[in-house]
Design goal:
about 475 residues; two-stranded antiparallel sheet; globular
Length: about 475
Amino acid sequence: MMEEARKVRIGVSLCLAISLACLAPVTALAHGAEGGIVLLLPTGYYLAGAAFVVAITFLLFSLLPDGFARWLYAGIIRFPAVAAPPGAWISLASFLTMTVMVLAGFFGSRDPLLNPLPAVIWTLWWVCLTIAHGLFGDLWRVLNPWSGPLHLLRRMVKRPVGERALLPLPAVLGYLPALVQFYAFAWFELVDLSPSDPARLATAVSLYWCLNFLAMLVFGEATWRMRGEPFSLFFFLIAKLSPIGFYRTTERRLCVFLCWPGKQLFDLPPLSVSGMAFILLTLSTVTFDGFSRTFVWLSAIGVNPLEFPGRSAVMLSSSLGILLAFAALSSLFAVCVVLGCWLSGTRPMLPVAGRLIYSIIPISVAFQLSHYLTLVLVEIQNLGVAVSDPFVRGWDLLGLADHHVTTSFLFTFEGVQAIFNTQTTAIALGHVVAVILAHALMAESAAGTPAYKRRLFWLELPFAGLMVFYTAFGLWLLSTPRI
C-alpha cells in the first residue's frame, strides 16, 4: 500500500509539474510569418488555452464510462462497392508527370520561384499530399511513381519482375532502410546548401527514384514499399487517420467506408522498435525545422540571429540537431511509457509502446499543416505561375503567366491573426485526437484486467503530460521570433 501511494505521488507530481509549466502565463511573444512580418498577438493565452483543452480531454475521457472510447471507434458506415481505379495506369501517369517536372528542373528556369519542380516537391507533394492522406486515405498507393513502370516492365518482358523478390530483405533490419532514407531526405531539406535549386533537386529526385526502383526489383515491390521506401510507409500510416477507408472485394471492385478518424490504426499490430523510431523521426524533423530558426537555437550554437551567416556555417550543427531532436523526442516517449507502465503495473512494456506510438501520428499531421501553412499559401501561387511556362518558352498553359503573386495577407493584423488561429486550431486538434486515440488504444489493451479504470488512468497519465507539453511547445515554435 505504501509503495502504491509512493508511485501515485511521484506520477502526479511529475505530470502536474510538466502541465503547470506549460499552462503558466508567459509574456506575449511576436509571431513571425513569411516575408519577415512581425505582429504582436496574445500568444500566452493561446498556449495556455490549447494546453488546457488537451489536459481536459484526457481527464474527461478518464471519467467517461468503461468502453466509451472503444465504442467510439467501433462503428463504420459501408457504401456499395465501386469500380476500382486503374492503379497501375494512374501510377504511370504520376511517373510521367514526375519526369516532366524533373526535365523542367534540368532545363527550365534557374530561379526556384519560376521553376515548377521546387514547389511541386516541397509544397504540393511533401505538405499538401501529406494532409490529403489524413483526409482521403492512402492516395500514394496508386500515385506512387514505381508501380506503373513495374507493371509496364512486367508486360514487356512477360515475367513477374518486382512481384517476386530476388533476395529476401533481412527481417532483422525491420524498418531501418526507411529510417535511413527519411533521415537523408530530412538532411537534404534542412541542411543541404540549396535544396530548392532546380537542377540539384532534379538530380536528387532522379537518384531517389532509381535507387528505390532497383530495390523493388531486388527485394520485391510490396516488401520494399512497406519497409524500405519511407514515403510509402509514412503515407500509409497517415492514411490510417483518415475517416475514409477502402478495401478490395474483388480484383476490380472497391468497398468504401466511413469511420471515426484513427479507427483504421486499430487493425495494425504493435510496431517494432525500428517502426517506432521511424514515426518519432518524422515528427522530430518537422519540429527541428521550426526550432532551428528560433533565436534560442541560434544563440545556443553561437550564431547571431540578426546576422545569420547562411546554411554553410551551420551544416554540422544542423546535422547534429536533427539527431538531437530525434533523441530528445524518443527519450521523452520512452520515459512516458516506462513511467506509465510502472505506475499502472503493466508488463511487458514493448507491446504498450508499439501500440501507443500510433498516437503520435495525428501530431505529425498537425505540425505539417501548422508549420508549413504560410509557405503553402505563397508557394501555391508561385507553382501556378511556374507550371504555366515550365521550360521558359513563353507559354501560358494555365493562363497564369502574368499572375502577380501576393503576400498581402501577411501584412495585416487580421490576416496574420487568421493564420495563427488556424495554426493553433490544428495543433490543439491534433493533440486532442492523439489523447483520445491513446486512450482508446490503451483501453483496448487493458480491457478485462483487474482495476481496469485505475490502471488505464496511470498508464496514460505520463503520455497525457507529454501531449500537454508538446501542445504548448508547438505553439511556442509558431509564435517565437525566428530568422
